Please model this.
Amino acid sequence: MDRPIYVTKPSLPDLQEFIPYLEQIWESGILTNNGPFHQQLEKELAEFLGVPYVSLFANGTLALVTALQALRITGEVITTPFSFVATTHSLWWNNIKPVFVDIEPEFCNINPDKIEAAITSKTTAIMPVHVYGNPCGVEKIKAIADTYGLRVIYDAAHTFGARYNGQSICSYGDLSILSFHATKVFNTLEGGAIISHDEATKKRVDNLKNFGFVNETTVVAPGINSKMNEVQAALGLVQLKHHPENIEKRKAVAEMYRQSLKGISGISCLSEPEKTEPNYAYFPILVDEHLYGMSRDELYEKLRKNNIYGRRYFYPLISEFSMYKGIDSAEPANLPVARKMAERVICLPIYPELSKDIVKSIINIIRK
Ligand code: T4K
Model:
Protein backbone atom coordinates (compact mmCIF):
# COMPACT_ATOMS: atom_id res chain seq x y z
CA MET A 1 0.00 0.00 0.00
CA ASP A 2 1.54 3.33 -0.99
CA ARG A 3 -0.24 5.25 1.79
CA PRO A 4 -1.40 4.27 5.28
CA ILE A 5 -4.83 2.71 5.57
CA TYR A 6 -6.25 3.31 9.05
CA VAL A 7 -8.99 1.46 10.86
CA THR A 8 -11.32 4.28 9.89
CA LYS A 9 -11.47 7.51 7.97
CA PRO A 10 -14.00 10.08 9.12
CA SER A 11 -16.85 10.77 6.71
CA LEU A 12 -17.13 14.44 5.84
CA PRO A 13 -19.54 16.17 3.47
CA ASP A 14 -18.44 18.32 0.57
CA LEU A 15 -17.12 21.54 2.11
CA GLN A 16 -19.36 23.63 -0.18
CA GLU A 17 -22.41 22.00 1.34
CA PHE A 18 -21.30 23.03 4.83
CA ILE A 19 -20.31 26.61 4.09
CA PRO A 20 -23.85 28.11 4.06
CA TYR A 21 -24.34 26.75 7.61
CA LEU A 22 -21.11 28.39 8.72
CA GLU A 23 -22.20 31.65 7.10
CA GLN A 24 -25.43 31.51 9.08
CA ILE A 25 -23.50 30.99 12.34
CA TRP A 26 -21.12 33.87 11.54
CA GLU A 27 -24.10 36.06 10.62
CA SER A 28 -26.14 35.32 13.75
CA GLY A 29 -23.29 35.25 16.26
CA ILE A 30 -25.00 32.34 18.05
CA LEU A 31 -22.15 29.92 18.64
CA THR A 32 -23.41 27.69 21.46
CA ASN A 33 -25.87 27.35 24.39
CA ASN A 34 -28.80 25.57 22.76
CA GLY A 35 -28.70 27.55 19.52
CA PRO A 36 -30.96 26.96 16.50
CA PHE A 37 -28.81 24.24 14.86
CA HIS A 38 -28.51 22.45 18.20
CA GLN A 39 -32.30 22.45 18.59
CA GLN A 40 -32.81 21.35 15.00
CA LEU A 41 -30.32 18.49 15.27
CA GLU A 42 -31.93 17.18 18.48
CA LYS A 43 -35.27 17.13 16.67
CA GLU A 44 -33.96 15.56 13.46
CA LEU A 45 -31.98 12.90 15.31
CA ALA A 46 -34.99 11.93 17.44
CA GLU A 47 -37.03 11.51 14.25
CA PHE A 48 -34.26 9.67 12.40
CA LEU A 49 -33.58 7.26 15.26
CA GLY A 50 -37.23 6.91 16.23
CA VAL A 51 -36.60 7.80 19.89
CA PRO A 52 -38.50 10.30 22.03
CA TYR A 53 -35.75 12.60 23.31
CA VAL A 54 -32.18 13.40 22.30
CA SER A 55 -29.83 15.62 24.33
CA LEU A 56 -26.68 16.58 22.48
CA PHE A 57 -23.27 16.56 24.18
CA ALA A 58 -19.73 17.74 23.51
CA ASN A 59 -18.63 14.08 23.46
CA GLY A 60 -19.77 10.61 24.45
CA THR A 61 -17.69 10.45 27.63
CA LEU A 62 -19.37 13.49 29.18
CA ALA A 63 -22.71 12.01 28.12
CA LEU A 64 -21.86 8.83 30.09
CA VAL A 65 -20.77 10.81 33.15
CA THR A 66 -23.95 12.89 33.01
CA ALA A 67 -26.25 9.91 32.42
CA LEU A 68 -25.10 8.39 35.73
CA GLN A 69 -25.74 11.70 37.49
CA ALA A 70 -29.12 12.15 35.86
CA LEU A 71 -30.31 8.86 37.40
CA ARG A 72 -28.46 9.53 40.69
CA ILE A 73 -26.53 6.27 40.42
CA THR A 74 -24.27 5.43 43.40
CA GLY A 75 -22.52 2.42 44.97
CA GLU A 76 -21.67 -0.35 42.52
CA VAL A 77 -22.44 -0.67 38.83
CA ILE A 78 -22.13 -3.88 36.84
CA THR A 79 -20.28 -3.39 33.57
CA THR A 80 -18.04 -5.03 30.97
CA PRO A 81 -14.24 -5.00 30.78
CA PHE A 82 -14.41 -5.36 26.97
CA SER A 83 -14.91 -1.75 25.96
CA PHE A 84 -13.16 1.56 25.49
CA VAL A 85 -11.86 2.93 28.81
CA ALA A 86 -14.41 5.76 28.80
CA THR A 87 -17.13 3.33 29.89
CA THR A 88 -15.46 2.57 33.23
CA HIS A 89 -13.91 6.01 33.61
CA SER A 90 -17.43 7.48 33.68
CA LEU A 91 -18.10 5.39 36.81
CA TRP A 92 -14.84 6.50 38.40
CA TRP A 93 -15.70 10.15 37.78
CA ASN A 94 -18.91 9.55 39.74
CA ASN A 95 -17.18 7.76 42.62
CA ILE A 96 -18.95 4.52 41.66
CA LYS A 97 -17.27 1.12 41.99
CA PRO A 98 -17.20 -0.81 38.70
CA VAL A 99 -18.01 -4.52 38.96
CA PHE A 100 -16.72 -6.38 35.91
CA VAL A 101 -18.71 -9.26 34.47
CA ASP A 102 -17.45 -11.54 31.71
CA ILE A 103 -18.65 -11.33 28.10
CA GLU A 104 -20.23 -13.88 25.76
CA PRO A 105 -18.14 -15.10 22.81
CA GLU A 106 -20.65 -14.52 19.98
CA PHE A 107 -20.73 -10.71 19.99
CA CYS A 108 -18.32 -9.80 22.82
CA ASN A 109 -21.14 -8.18 24.83
CA ILE A 110 -21.66 -8.59 28.59
CA ASN A 111 -22.95 -12.10 29.34
CA PRO A 112 -26.43 -11.60 30.86
CA ASP A 113 -26.25 -15.04 32.47
CA LYS A 114 -23.33 -13.86 34.60
CA ILE A 115 -24.92 -10.63 35.86
CA GLU A 116 -27.06 -11.94 38.73
CA ALA A 117 -24.08 -13.47 40.54
CA ALA A 118 -22.38 -10.05 40.58
CA ILE A 119 -25.29 -8.20 42.23
CA THR A 120 -24.74 -7.08 45.83
CA SER A 121 -26.70 -4.86 48.23
CA LYS A 122 -24.73 -1.90 46.83
CA THR A 123 -25.57 -2.51 43.17
CA THR A 124 -27.73 0.24 41.72
CA ALA A 125 -27.34 -0.13 37.95
CA ILE A 126 -26.01 -2.08 34.99
CA MET A 127 -23.92 -0.36 32.33
CA PRO A 128 -23.60 -2.72 29.35
CA VAL A 129 -22.00 -1.77 26.02
CA HIS A 130 -23.40 -2.71 22.61
CA VAL A 131 -19.90 -3.61 21.41
CA TYR A 132 -19.20 -2.92 17.70
CA GLY A 133 -22.85 -1.83 17.37
CA ASN A 134 -24.30 -5.33 17.98
CA PRO A 135 -27.19 -5.41 20.48
CA CYS A 136 -26.62 -6.85 23.97
CA GLY A 137 -29.06 -9.42 25.38
CA VAL A 138 -31.46 -6.55 26.06
CA GLU A 139 -34.47 -8.67 27.05
CA LYS A 140 -32.51 -10.69 29.63
CA ILE A 141 -30.87 -7.56 30.98
CA LYS A 142 -34.28 -5.90 31.35
CA ALA A 143 -35.68 -8.91 33.23
CA ILE A 144 -32.74 -8.87 35.68
CA ALA A 145 -32.97 -5.10 36.17
CA ASP A 146 -36.73 -5.34 36.81
CA THR A 147 -36.31 -8.17 39.30
CA TYR A 148 -33.62 -6.40 41.33
CA GLY A 149 -34.83 -2.81 40.87
CA LEU A 150 -31.71 -1.73 38.97
CA ARG A 151 -31.37 1.01 36.37
CA VAL A 152 -29.83 0.27 32.97
CA ILE A 153 -27.64 2.77 31.14
CA TYR A 154 -26.44 1.48 27.79
CA ASP A 155 -23.15 2.66 26.42
CA ALA A 156 -24.40 2.74 22.84
CA ALA A 157 -21.37 4.68 21.55
CA HIS A 158 -21.03 2.29 18.59
CA THR A 159 -24.67 1.86 17.63
CA PHE A 160 -25.72 5.00 15.77
CA GLY A 161 -28.55 4.07 13.42
CA ALA A 162 -28.45 0.33 14.19
CA ARG A 163 -31.83 -1.26 14.85
CA TYR A 164 -32.99 -4.31 16.76
CA ASN A 165 -36.46 -5.83 16.64
CA GLY A 166 -37.61 -3.07 14.28
CA GLN A 167 -36.60 -0.21 16.58
CA SER A 168 -33.52 1.75 17.52
CA ILE A 169 -31.16 -0.15 19.81
CA CYS A 170 -31.35 3.02 21.91
CA SER A 171 -34.99 2.24 22.70
CA TYR A 172 -33.79 -0.19 25.38
CA GLY A 173 -32.72 0.69 28.91
CA ASP A 174 -33.41 3.78 31.02
CA LEU A 175 -30.86 5.82 29.07
CA SER A 176 -28.50 5.21 26.16
CA ILE A 177 -25.48 7.25 25.22
CA LEU A 178 -24.11 7.76 21.72
CA SER A 179 -20.71 8.99 20.54
CA PHE A 180 -20.33 11.21 17.48
CA HIS A 181 -16.52 11.14 17.63
CA ALA A 182 -14.56 11.48 14.37
CA THR A 183 -14.04 7.70 14.32
CA LYS A 184 -17.75 6.83 14.57
CA VAL A 185 -20.24 6.04 11.77
CA PHE A 186 -21.89 9.43 12.33
CA ASN A 187 -19.59 12.21 13.43
CA THR A 188 -19.84 15.83 14.48
CA LEU A 189 -16.00 16.03 14.80
CA GLU A 190 -16.43 15.32 18.53
CA GLY A 191 -19.87 14.88 19.98
CA GLY A 192 -22.33 12.64 21.72
CA ALA A 193 -25.88 12.33 22.97
CA ILE A 194 -28.11 10.90 25.67
CA ILE A 195 -31.33 9.24 24.57
CA SER A 196 -34.06 9.48 27.20
CA HIS A 197 -37.64 8.30 27.22
CA ASP A 198 -39.57 10.91 29.24
CA GLU A 199 -39.64 14.68 29.37
CA ALA A 200 -38.63 15.04 33.01
CA THR A 201 -35.43 13.01 32.48
CA LYS A 202 -34.62 14.93 29.28
CA LYS A 203 -34.96 18.18 31.27
CA ARG A 204 -32.71 16.93 34.07
CA VAL A 205 -30.08 15.81 31.54
CA ASP A 206 -30.25 19.20 29.80
CA ASN A 207 -29.85 21.04 33.11
CA LEU A 208 -26.88 18.88 34.10
CA LYS A 209 -25.01 19.55 30.86
CA ASN A 210 -25.45 23.30 31.43
CA PHE A 211 -23.97 23.76 34.95
CA GLY A 212 -27.29 22.72 36.55
CA PHE A 213 -29.11 25.89 35.44
CA VAL A 214 -32.88 25.59 35.10
CA ASN A 215 -33.32 29.30 34.43
CA GLU A 216 -31.26 32.48 34.57
CA THR A 217 -31.04 32.55 38.36
CA THR A 218 -31.60 28.98 39.55
CA VAL A 219 -29.02 26.20 39.73
CA VAL A 220 -30.40 22.85 40.92
CA ALA A 221 -27.38 20.57 40.70
CA PRO A 222 -23.59 20.75 40.33
CA GLY A 223 -23.80 20.24 36.60
CA ILE A 224 -20.92 20.40 34.18
CA ASN A 225 -20.41 22.20 30.87
CA SER A 226 -20.81 19.51 28.22
CA LYS A 227 -22.84 21.31 25.57
CA MET A 228 -22.42 20.72 21.86
CA ASN A 229 -21.65 23.92 19.95
CA GLU A 230 -23.37 25.27 16.83
CA VAL A 231 -20.60 24.32 14.37
CA GLN A 232 -20.76 20.70 15.51
CA ALA A 233 -24.56 20.68 15.42
CA ALA A 234 -24.63 22.21 11.93
CA LEU A 235 -22.18 19.58 10.72
CA GLY A 236 -24.44 16.92 12.22
CA LEU A 237 -27.37 18.20 10.15
CA VAL A 238 -25.36 17.86 6.95
CA GLN A 239 -23.89 14.49 7.94
CA LEU A 240 -27.35 13.10 8.63
CA LYS A 241 -28.37 13.65 4.99
CA HIS A 242 -25.52 11.39 3.85
CA HIS A 243 -25.81 8.77 6.56
CA PRO A 244 -27.93 6.22 4.64
CA GLU A 245 -25.55 6.16 1.65
CA ASN A 246 -22.56 5.85 4.00
CA ILE A 247 -24.12 2.80 5.66
CA GLU A 248 -24.71 1.18 2.25
CA LYS A 249 -21.05 1.67 1.37
CA ARG A 250 -19.93 0.24 4.73
CA LYS A 251 -22.22 -2.72 4.17
CA ALA A 252 -20.51 -3.49 0.84
CA VAL A 253 -17.10 -3.49 2.56
CA ALA A 254 -18.35 -5.73 5.40
CA GLU A 255 -19.92 -8.20 2.96
CA MET A 256 -16.72 -8.42 0.95
CA TYR A 257 -14.66 -9.16 4.07
CA ARG A 258 -17.17 -11.69 5.39
CA GLN A 259 -17.39 -13.54 2.08
CA SER A 260 -13.67 -13.60 1.32
CA LEU A 261 -12.41 -14.43 4.80
CA LYS A 262 -14.70 -17.46 5.05
CA GLY A 263 -12.23 -20.00 3.69
CA ILE A 264 -9.20 -18.93 5.73
CA SER A 265 -8.48 -21.43 8.46
CA GLY A 266 -7.97 -19.79 11.85
CA ILE A 267 -9.66 -16.50 10.92
CA SER A 268 -13.26 -16.00 11.96
CA CYS A 269 -15.75 -13.17 11.96
CA LEU A 270 -18.30 -12.46 14.69
CA SER A 271 -21.80 -13.89 14.16
CA GLU A 272 -24.42 -11.75 12.45
CA PRO A 273 -26.99 -10.87 15.12
CA GLU A 274 -30.61 -11.88 14.48
CA LYS A 275 -33.44 -9.35 14.08
CA THR A 276 -30.81 -6.63 13.67
CA GLU A 277 -30.16 -3.94 11.06
CA PRO A 278 -26.45 -3.33 11.67
CA ASN A 279 -24.51 -0.11 11.07
CA TYR A 280 -21.23 -1.83 10.08
CA ALA A 281 -19.32 0.40 12.47
CA TYR A 282 -16.41 -2.03 12.93
CA PHE A 283 -15.19 -5.20 11.27
CA PRO A 284 -13.56 -7.37 13.95
CA ILE A 285 -11.86 -10.65 13.08
CA LEU A 286 -10.62 -13.28 15.52
CA VAL A 287 -7.28 -15.02 15.04
CA ASP A 288 -6.88 -18.58 16.28
CA GLU A 289 -3.10 -18.83 16.50
CA HIS A 290 -3.08 -22.62 16.45
CA LEU A 291 -5.14 -22.95 13.27
CA TYR A 292 -3.87 -19.83 11.49
CA GLY A 293 -0.21 -20.54 12.22
CA MET A 294 0.47 -17.01 13.33
CA SER A 295 -0.54 -15.12 16.47
CA ARG A 296 -2.91 -12.15 16.46
CA ASP A 297 -0.01 -9.82 17.23
CA GLU A 298 2.09 -11.27 14.42
CA LEU A 299 -0.75 -10.69 11.96
CA TYR A 300 -1.29 -7.21 13.38
CA GLU A 301 2.40 -6.40 12.81
CA LYS A 302 2.38 -7.95 9.34
CA LEU A 303 -0.57 -5.75 8.38
CA ARG A 304 1.24 -2.68 9.75
CA LYS A 305 4.33 -3.52 7.71
CA ASN A 306 2.03 -3.40 4.71
CA ASN A 307 0.69 0.02 5.76
CA ILE A 308 -2.61 -1.42 7.08
CA TYR A 309 -3.39 -0.04 10.54
CA GLY A 310 -6.06 -2.27 12.06
CA ARG A 311 -6.75 -1.86 15.78
CA ARG A 312 -6.97 -4.36 18.62
CA TYR A 313 -10.25 -3.03 20.04
CA PHE A 314 -10.48 -3.90 22.98
CA TYR A 315 -7.05 -4.94 24.11
CA PRO A 316 -5.95 -4.62 26.84
CA LEU A 317 -9.17 -5.12 28.77
CA ILE A 318 -10.24 -2.17 30.92
CA SER A 319 -9.86 -4.42 33.96
CA GLU A 320 -6.13 -4.73 33.17
CA PHE A 321 -5.37 -1.02 33.42
CA SER A 322 -3.52 -0.05 36.60
CA MET A 323 -6.37 2.00 38.09
CA TYR A 324 -8.83 -0.92 37.89
CA LYS A 325 -6.80 -4.13 38.16
CA GLY A 326 -6.91 -4.15 41.97
CA ILE A 327 -10.70 -4.52 42.04
CA ASP A 328 -11.86 -8.06 42.98
CA SER A 329 -13.95 -8.48 39.84
CA ALA A 330 -10.96 -7.54 37.66
CA GLU A 331 -9.29 -10.83 38.65
CA PRO A 332 -8.36 -12.54 35.33
CA ALA A 333 -9.99 -15.83 36.44
CA ASN A 334 -13.33 -13.96 36.58
CA LEU A 335 -13.07 -12.85 32.93
CA PRO A 336 -11.87 -15.81 30.82
CA VAL A 337 -13.94 -15.08 27.69
CA ALA A 338 -13.06 -11.39 27.67
CA ARG A 339 -9.37 -12.26 27.99
CA LYS A 340 -9.56 -14.74 25.14
CA MET A 341 -11.34 -12.27 22.84
CA ALA A 342 -8.97 -9.43 23.73
CA GLU A 343 -6.04 -11.67 22.78
CA ARG A 344 -7.55 -12.66 19.42
CA VAL A 345 -9.26 -9.61 17.97
CA ILE A 346 -8.20 -7.21 15.23
CA CYS A 347 -10.63 -4.63 13.84
CA LEU A 348 -9.94 -4.29 10.12
CA PRO A 349 -10.27 -0.97 8.28
CA ILE A 350 -13.85 -0.14 7.38
CA TYR A 351 -15.26 3.17 6.14
CA PRO A 352 -17.45 4.30 3.25
CA GLU A 353 -14.62 5.40 0.95
CA LEU A 354 -12.54 2.24 1.38
CA SER A 355 -12.07 0.90 -2.16
CA LYS A 356 -12.68 -2.69 -3.24
CA ASP A 357 -9.08 -2.94 -4.38
CA ILE A 358 -7.76 -2.06 -0.94
CA VAL A 359 -10.17 -4.50 0.73
CA LYS A 360 -8.93 -7.18 -1.69
CA SER A 361 -5.30 -6.37 -0.81
CA ILE A 362 -6.04 -6.59 2.92
CA ILE A 363 -7.71 -9.97 2.41
CA ASN A 364 -4.74 -11.18 0.34
CA ILE A 365 -2.29 -10.19 3.06
CA ILE A 366 -4.37 -12.12 5.61
CA ARG A 367 -4.70 -15.11 3.25
CA LYS A 368 -0.94 -15.35 2.69
N1 T4K B 1 -17.85 4.23 24.93
C1 T4K B 1 -17.34 3.47 23.96
C2 T4K B 1 -17.77 2.06 23.86
C3 T4K B 1 -16.45 4.03 23.03
O1 T4K B 1 -15.93 3.25 22.05
C4 T4K B 1 -16.09 5.39 23.15
C5 T4K B 1 -15.14 5.96 22.23
C6 T4K B 1 -16.67 6.14 24.18
C7 T4K B 1 -17.55 5.53 25.06
C8 T4K B 1 -16.36 7.58 24.38
O2 T4K B 1 -16.88 8.39 23.37
P1 T4K B 1 -16.15 9.81 23.02
O3 T4K B 1 -15.96 10.54 24.30
O4 T4K B 1 -14.87 9.49 22.31
O5 T4K B 1 -17.16 10.48 22.11
C9 T4K B 1 -10.95 6.03 19.33
C10 T4K B 1 -11.81 7.21 19.67
O6 T4K B 1 -11.05 8.33 20.09
C11 T4K B 1 -12.89 6.92 20.65
O7 T4K B 1 -13.87 7.92 20.45
C12 T4K B 1 -13.52 5.56 20.43
N2 T4K B 1 -14.48 5.23 21.44
C13 T4K B 1 -12.46 4.50 20.40
C14 T4K B 1 -13.03 3.12 20.16
O8 T4K B 1 -11.59 4.78 19.32
P2 T4K B 1 -8.40 5.68 19.44
O9 T4K B 1 -7.41 5.94 20.51
O10 T4K B 1 -8.41 4.38 18.77
O11 T4K B 1 -8.38 6.85 18.33
P3 T4K B 1 -7.29 7.21 17.25
O12 T4K B 1 -7.04 8.65 17.33
O13 T4K B 1 -6.13 6.28 17.35
O14 T4K B 1 -8.06 6.94 15.88
C15 T4K B 1 -8.12 5.69 15.21
C16 T4K B 1 -7.79 5.93 13.74
O15 T4K B 1 -8.79 6.74 13.12
C17 T4K B 1 -6.48 6.66 13.50
O16 T4K B 1 -5.44 5.73 13.35
C18 T4K B 1 -6.71 7.43 12.21
C19 T4K B 1 -8.21 7.62 12.15
N3 T4K B 1 -8.59 9.01 12.48
C20 T4K B 1 -8.78 9.37 13.80
C21 T4K B 1 -9.12 10.65 14.10
C22 T4K B 1 -9.32 11.07 15.54
C23 T4K B 1 -8.74 9.92 11.46
O17 T4K B 1 -8.55 9.58 10.28
N4 T4K B 1 -9.12 11.20 11.77
C24 T4K B 1 -9.31 11.60 13.05
O18 T4K B 1 -9.65 12.77 13.28
O19 T4K B 1 -9.81 5.97 20.12
Observations:
- Residues 6-10, 59-61, 83-84, 86-87, 129, 155, 157-158, 179, 181-183, 192, 309, 311, 313 surround T4K (CB under 6 Å).
- The chain has eleven helices and 17 strands.
